[in-house]
Amino acid sequence: MTRIVGGYRDASGQPGAKMQIIPWSSYYDKITLSLQFGGAPDVFVLHANHLPFYADGGALQELSGLMKADQWGAEDFLALPLKQGAWKGKQYAIPLDCHITVLYYNKKIFREAGIASPPTNLPELQQAKKKIQARFGQGRNAPWTYMFANLATQSITFMGQEGGGVIDQNTGKASLSSPRSLSGLALMKSLVEDGTAPNPEGQNAWDAFKMGRAAMVSEGTYMIPDLLAQKDLDFGVAPFPQLGSRKAAWANSHLLVIKSGLSGSRQLRALSFIRHLSDQSFLWSLAGQYPVRKSILTGPSFRTKSLLAASAQQLDQALYEPAVVSSREIQNFAGPAFEQIILQGVRPEDAAAQADRRIQEVLSRP
Amino acid sequence: MRAKRDRLIAAAFLGPYAVASVTFLGVPLLVGIALSLTRTRLLGPPPIFVGLANYAAVLRDDLFWAALGNTLCYMALIVPVGTGISLSLAGALSLAGRGSGALRTALYLPSILGVSVVAILWRWLYASDGGLINTLLQARIPWLSHPSLALSSISVLTLWWTYGGSMLVYLAAIKGVPQEVIESAKLDGAKPGQVALSIVMPCIKPTVVFCTALSCIGTAQIFGQIYVVTGGSGGPAYSTLSLSLAMFQQGFSSYQLGFGSAMAIVIFVFIALTTAGCLGLLELIFPDSRKDLFRKWNQHRTS
User: Fold this and answer.
1) Rounded distance, CA B182 to CA A116, Å?
2) Counting beta carbons within 10 angstroms of the beta carbon of residue A27, is it exposed (0 to 12), middle (13 to 18) or buried (19 or more)?
3) pLDDT range class, residue A348, cuts 50, 70, 90
4) Most buried of A167, A365, B168, B210, CB within 10 angstroms?
5) Looking at A221-303, which runs of residues are DSSP E strands?
6) For A137-263, where are the alpha helices, taking DSSP H only?
7) What is the mean pLDDT of chain A?
């Protein structure tokens, strides 16, 4: 990103842009406070699930008119990521990328266990488990077949593969306790119960995969640079398998937005900067982010140089979280419900119903 | 004239502190109370006065009660165990001969670390795969990722980080106990245990009360280590969620400033009550013991 931003002055002939990197852990607090009390940057990044909060609060510049003035059409964008930048029928953001859950696999373990290719469905995953357990045993030092690295995104993926989700896309109501959502979570729990995976352990699971203690793990594509830094790890990237009744994998996008209240000329300069970032999204893909411009996705650079090229077909199964204003609060309630169901042995119906009640209260708030 | 000059000098010394207190404590407290009576959301519609509705919502919120229960568990684990560890180590250090300075420095070292450093360090120690503790135990115990273990694991981390401060204060108090009292007790045939419990402990009661009160207040506000270790979630499954973290989530994750402020005021009351409770408990354990001790000592001298 530093390279891309640094190239803006040369590419556009405009004054350069000053970039500030803020860790995600405090990013939204800082951006929200700066938008409320002053000091926000002209252009900044939002995750797709955060856009409604800022758009609804009047903090973002609507972009349709600006794009028209800049003669920048939307045809080159993939429809689903572009849709994430819209709120109540207006386009507030340009998607820079899409990061989606993929399956990372340890090629060395696969070779030693005699597994030819990463699993694409549940029977193949079970077959892989048998081969790994036959080769390495099931002792304390044997690698796990699979590990859940990010419980929240994995839960959303599994529920999505059964047609469920935290919020029903049609009714807009909390739906963790719907039969479809519970079926997805039961499927997830069954992998723990049958010894395919241990209980989800977050960062520990990711570290275990990096140390060769797990044959497979799922995480977003943004983790690729972390794995590339692990020189002794021979890993591959594959689409997340279809373990439920349909294909789906949790996804999100970095959206580029302009704060509201800028003068006309400054708005156009901000848009030209966004356009530059979007034009350079092949470089950004090297950091583990799918480009969402069709011309870049089908271009020779991406197809030949990116680790992501082999799994790009799964962009069709990208499962974005529903667009709601209170997505952060909802995460606070959904995450613990997943933990209660998978880790604590609480009756899934009870944990899901409790979370649904809390989420519905938030959704119903004026 | 002199009295007036003294008053001016006093005002000059107290003035800056008073201004800072009003600016950084008084004003935020008043703003917090005012916010707690409104429905306010960052980047949301203008604030609406809702009276005590936020307080009622806090008391109806089952997560608040879960966080309260967890905070009481933290206090039940950290305050007595921490006091015991600090007192024992201070007692041992007071008896140590050569090398006690180096030992004291080594024991105090964890306390100078920042909360993030401590939390990240212990996250590595606790890691299920490749963590030092599990490697030594030849086990795969989910210290931080299982709801029944996580709170205790964070309590151990907190004890390791915080015992050093109290230990130094206790050590100073123990060294301040009049030697003639101890020697007299020894001459009267008191054993080391009796000296510790019947002479030293009553003498350092004010220090114990002071450190325990601080420990109660600090533990009731426990936040940083949970935030770093759990990524701000208070998980798994709310098992480590403390009152301060719950308040932070309302104020800064959800941007519900009114509700978060009401929770902050309730926490303020909770801390005041629990600290008073701790002090009351200490008074039950050592009822006027220091006063009694010196009264007896004086009687002994005059007789």
Assistant:
1) 78
2) middle
3) confident
4) A167
5) 235-239, 249-252, 254-258, 290-291
6) 151-161, 179-193, 203-210, 224-228
7) 90
SS3 A148: strand
**Alpha-carbon gap, residue B27 to B299, rounded angstroms:** 52
Contact residues, chain A, for B255 at CB < 8 Å: 32, 328
- Chain B residues inside the 8 Å CB shell of A33: 42
- Tell me the C-alpha distance between A151 and A64, whole Å: 37
Nearest CA among A109, A106, A121 for reference residue A240: A121
Q: How far is CA B1 from the centre of its chain?
A: 46
Q: Are strands A97-106 and A214-220 parallel, antiparallel or unpaired?
A: antiparallel
With H, G, I as helix, E, B as strand and everything else as coil, classify residue B303. coil
Is there a contact between A57 and B127 if contact means CB atoms under 8 Å apart?
no
- Check CB contact under 8 Å for A140 and B145: no
B46 touches chain A (CB under 8 A): no
Say yes or no for a CB contact (<8 Å) between B128 and A35. Answer: no
User: For residue A321, is pLDDT > 70?
Assistant: yes
pLDDT given at position B221: 92
Does B123 contact A203 at a Cβ distance shorter than 8 Å?
yes
Least confident segment among A257-261, A303-307, A353-357, A362-366 = A303-307
Task: State the residue for tokens 């266990």.
Answer: A113
Tell me how close the Cα of A341 comes to any Cα of chain B, in angstroms.
9
Report chain A residues whose CB lies below 8 A from the CB of B233. Answer: 332, 335-336
DSSP 8-state code for residue A298? T
| A341 has pLDDT over 90 | no
Give the DSSP letter string of A220-236: EGGGHHHHHT-TT--EE
Q: Distance from A301 to chain B by nearest Cα, in Å? A: 37
| Cα distance between residue B161 and residue B177, in whole Å | 27
Mutate to test the interface with A, among B42, B60, B141, B259 (most CBs of A within 10 A): B42
ipTM of model: 0.76
Say yes or no for a CB contact (<8 Å) between A329 and B233. Answer: no
Q: Token pair of A277, please?
A: 């970032």
- Give the H/E segment covering residue B165: helix B147-175
What region, left, alpha or beta, does residue B190 occupy, with left being phi > 0 and alpha being psi -120 to 50 degrees?
Answer: beta
Sole residue written with tokens 């989606």: A100
Q: Measured between CB atoms, which of B129, B145, B233 is closest to A335?
A: B233
Between residues 148 and 207 of chain A, which touch chain B (CB distance below 8 Å)? 198-205, 207
How close B281 comes to chain A (CA, Å)? 35
- Among the residue ranges A54-58, A84-88, A136-140, B32-36, the one predicted with the least confidence is A136-140
Task: Say which residue, A12 or A136, is predicted with more confidence.
Answer: A136
Average pLDDT in the B64-86 region?
A: 95
pTM for the complete prediction?
0.83
Q: How far is C-alpha A113 from the chain's CA centre?
A: 30
Closest partner residue to B147 (CB to CB) among A53, A343, A362 is A343
In tens, the pLDDT along A289-320 reads: 999 999 999 888 888 777 788 778 888 889 99
Q: Which of B 123-142 lie inside 8 A of A, CB atoms?
A: 123, 127-131, 138-140, 142
Contacts of B64 in chain A (CB under 8 A): none
CA distance B228 to A23: 13
For residue range B279-302, what is the model confidence (pLDDT) as tens digits? 788 778 777 654 554 565 566 556
Q: Decide if A289 contacts A222 (C-beta within 8 A).
A: yes
